[in-house]
Write a structure and sequence with these properties.
Radius of gyration: 15 Å
Shape: globular
Distance between the termini: 39 Å
Oligomer: single chain
Strand content: 25-35%
Number of strands: 14
Number of domains: 1
Order of helices and strands: EEHEEEEEEEHEEEEE
CATH class: Mainly Beta
CATH topology: Cyclophilin
Helix content: under 10%
Largest sheet: 10 strands, antiparallel
CATH superfamily: Cyclophilin-like
């Protein structure tokens, strides 16, 4: 049985995701590790790009513990998931085929990033909550240094991830295999 994540959006409801270790094992390990440590809890969704995605974080959740890179396992699996609404993907530095800890939800088919960023789970409940974020009133946010070429809009009324839990059904998942390089804002060390 695959692990199941529950994301509680404060005052909105629950998004349930079946994590797919056979599609992206290291991405799933990363997500489970950070969720189990509470690093996603009480976090405001940082970016919504209508017609593209809900980008939960682009800053490693503001935590040094979340600022690491893993090799993208987007192309490694026979159980590859298309990057379409209803999946969850792991973001990072696509041109270098590495990912970080940040996850996102596609709002439209994203064929241009398939095979670059791994889709690591399928939403089984609450897709309507994710899709509704596209219609939220948004406010522009000043881009951090190094990300000036990216337009960043956040929900005008913060959308808070109250808590993320993962039921692994008794299976122990390892820590993610991390790379020895670390990201800086907008680039590489």
């Amino acid at each position: 049985m695959n692990p199941v994540a529950s994301i509680i959006l404060k005052d909105r409801g629950r998004v349930v995701i079946e994590l797919m270790p056979e599609a992206a094992p290291n991405a799933v390990n990363s997500f489970i590790s950070l969720a189990s440590k509470g690093y996603y809890d009480h976090y405001a969704i940082q970016r919504v790009v209508p017609g593209w995605c809900v980008d939960v974080s682009y800053t490693g959740f503001g935590r040094p513990e979340c600022r690491y890179l893993i090799e993208s396992d987007a192309k490694r699996s026979a159980q590859y998931l298309d990057m379409v609404p209803g999946v969850v993907g792991l973001g990072g530095y696509g041109e270098n085929m590495v990912c970080g800890s940040e996850f996102f939800f596609p709002l439209a088919p994203m064929p241009s990033i398939e095979g670059i960023y791994p889709a690591f789970g399928r939403i089984t409940e609450g897709l309507d909550l994710i899709l509704a974020l596209e219609k939220e009133e948004l406010k522009p946010v000043q881009s951090p240094e190094g990300l000036e070429d990216i337009e960043i809009n956040a929900p005008a009324v913060p959308v808070i991830i109250e808590k993320v839990t993962v039921d692994t059904f008794g299976i122990q998942y390892p820590e993610p295999v991390k790379l020895d390089i670390m990201p800086e804002t907008g680039g590489w060390k």
